[in-house]
TrEMBL record:
The keyword DNA repair does not apply. This is Cationic amino acid transporter. It comes from Rotaria sordida. GO terms for cellular component: membrane. GO terms for molecular function: amino acid transmembrane transporter activity.
């Protein structure tokens, strides 16, 4: 028994020795670290003193410097966070999940109806009004070349739209593509300016429509509508670059058409698509009738001086005038992108969107070239400076009044489809932006019976009714052109980025000739066309953009769902770390207690 006690005591003494040795080793290690830190502190102090001697005596306010340093760090941190928020992209996983699960809008449209929407939005005021004005003011007979160049540019853009639309079939169109490729801020910028494109296209079509209605009534009857109720109270004087008072009251016909379109859009999109399809078929038949009826009356002498001599300025005839004409008539091709705004209402959008987008662009291009060729051969180009250039051209034929009436009907049908489809597109873009939180949620409110964004449609209808009653048509077309060019540039850039960042995603349709060739050529040509934009047009565009910045930073930035998801993810990350931190703290406390207990036991044993 005594031996056992001695052995136990010896064992305890050994444990105490081990603990003491461990403690001594820890103290030695601590002393070494403390000595090393002291040495480094002394070296840094000596270094600082040498620097002070070299620089000379300087007053030092350490607390103030520390506060300034902390403030600078906070400003830098806030700036980084702010920039990260602006360039935050919507992940493709979230975007695809939204497209798959968001079934508020009914998928009623087939590829024929989509093609009709593209043609309905494209063929309108650009060919019935701007073609003759471009020939008379800028290009002369070379307006044909202007239409070919702009048609090629539009075709390149339609290829990029087709790939992105098939990959991301969302109602946001270019807004959604930019959000996924370049981040929220640029998505807002291009979405807001895409809305400008469609709104001004609606206004241009409606105002021009009212003029053709007046002409039609004048041709078929002796009733003369008072100009006071069919013209805007202001007009744009291009020579003086300022607005002038016309002495008229308001354009009641434009307001009436806007109300009718608003009501039709609130009804189910299927009924709207049927109406649009009928009107599109009718206007294409009218254009074909004009081409075949007038082609035998052409006078090739009107081709003389295909490029009229330049008058001394960039925009008056010659090659530069032809380029100016490109900018002016580019508005005629804006519209094919409307197909992408109804992607969430299309059956099999991955296949039907490319067919409709590219098909509508090619058909429009062919019709424009043939129609312009016949028009400039019928009469001298200077006689085409009219709001109704095709009627001026018809005067040289034997068909006279009846063909003019038919063409007026075609123009009325054409401009109706443009206004209808453009307002449709604008409301769908606002719907997508509101769904992401960048606009108030009522823009995304869907009617439970008609399944249309009815509040957004009503607001757009009120806006168009007011402005179509007071705005002249000539300033609206060019403003739409600059917005379209910038929109197409963004689409090309978004395609290049998505090819490199999401190259693994399956694409049913791909732009040919590699990842960057077509988009680079297309965006470069769009930039070249922007040279012909006038300063007043740029000013109006900048005013609209500034208004968009105010809305974004006062509302969209703070209500963005993407911002809220990022914030929630950050909170979740911190929450996930809390158990780990608690576990580490608990383990550390337990180790401290064991160390203290071992120390007490060793002291008692001694």
């Amino acid at each position: 028994m005594t031996h056992l006690l001695i052995d136990a005591k010896s064992s305890n003494n050994c444990k105490v020795d081990i603990l003491l040795d461990s403690k001594h080793q820890s103290l030695n290690l601590f002393n070494k670290v403390e000595a090393e830190l002291t040495l480094r502190t002394a070296e840094e102090a000596e270094k600082n003193s040498v620097e002070k001697v070299c620089k000379g005596p300087q007053p030092l306010d350490q607390p103030k410097i520390q506060l300034e340093h902390d403030a600078s760090k906070r400003v830098l941190s806030c700036t980084k966070t702010f920039i990260k928020r602006l360039i935050a992209r919507k992940p493709m996983e979230i975007l695809q999940a939204e497209i798959d699960t968001r079934n508020e809008l009914r998928r009623d449209l087939n590829w024929i109806q989509l093609l009709a929407i593209g043609l309905g939005c494209t063929i309108g005021a650009g060919i019935f009004v701007l073609s003759g004005q471009a020939a008379a003011k800028y290009s002369g007979p070379s307006v044909i070349i202007s239409f070919i160049i702009t048609g090629v540019i539009a075709l390149l853009s339609s290829l990029s739209y087709s790939e992105l639309g098939a990959m991301m079939p969302s109602s946001g169109s270019v807004y959604t593509y930019t959000y996924a490729a370049m981040g929220e801020y640029l998505a807002w910028f291009i979405g807001w300016n895409s809305a400008l494109l469609h709104l001004f296209s609606v206004l241009t079509a409606i105002v021009t429509w009212s003029k053709y209605v007046v002409l039609f009534i004048d041709n078929v009857s002796n009733y003369n509508i008072k100009n006071m109720f069919v013209q805007a109270p202001v007009a744009w004087n291009e020579d003086e670059e300022r607005f002038i008072i016309t002495g008229q009251a308001i354009n009641l016909l434009a307001i009436a058409l806007t109300i009718a379109i608003t009501i039709l859009l609130i009804i189910r999109i299927y009924q709207m698509a049927i109406v649009n399809l009928v009107l599109v078929v009718f206007k294409i038949i009218i254009i074909i009738i004009f081409i075949f009826a007038c082609c035998k009356y052409v006078n090739r002498n009107n081709y003389y001086s295909f490029f009229p001599p330049n008058k001394g300025s960039f925009s008056e005839y010659g090659v530069t005038g032809m380029l100016k004409g490109c900018t002016y008539v580019f508005f005629a091709y804006t519209g094919f992108e409307s197909v992408s705004t109804v992607a969430q209402e299309a059956k099999l959008p991955e296949r039907s969107l490319p067919i409709a987008i590219i098909g509508s662009t090619i058909i429009s291009l062919l019709l424009y070239i043939v129609l312009c060729t016949v028009m400039v051969e019928l009469v001298p180009y200077k006689l085409l400076d009219s709001d109704n250039p095709l009627s001026e051209a018809i005067k040289t034929t034997l068909y006279g009044l009846w063909l003019s009436i038919v063409m007026n009907l075609g123009a009325i049908a054409s401009l109706t489809t443009v206004a209808l489809t453009d307002m449709l597109s604008q409301t769908r873009i606002f719907y997508a932006m509101a769904h992401d939180g960048l606009l108030p949620s009522f823009f995304a409110e869907i009617h439970r019976i008609t399944t249309t964004p009815w509040i957004s449609i009503i607001i757009s209808g009120i806006f168009c009714a007011v402005f179509s009653g007071v705005c002249p048509v000539d300033i609206l077309g060019e403003t739409s052109s600059i917005s379209a060019l910038i929109t197409y540039i963004f689409v090309h850039i978004a395609l290049i980025i998505m090819r490199y960042t999401h190259g693994d995603i399956q694409r049913i349709f791909q732009v040919p000739f590699g990842s960057w060739l077509i988009p680079t050529i297309g965006s470069s040509l769009c930039i070249l066309l922007m040279r012909g934009i006038t300063k007043p047009t740029v000013f109006r565009f900048l005013v609209w953009t500034a208004l968009g910045q105010i809305i974004y930073f006062s509302y969209g930035f703070w209500h963005s769902k993407q911002r809220k998801s990022i914030k929630s993810a950050s909170i979740s990350s911190v929450t996930e770390l809390l158990p780990t931190i608690a576990s580490i703290t608990e383990q550390y406390t337990q180790n401290e207690l064991e160390s203290d207990l071992a120390s007490e036991n060793s002291e008692n044993a001694v």
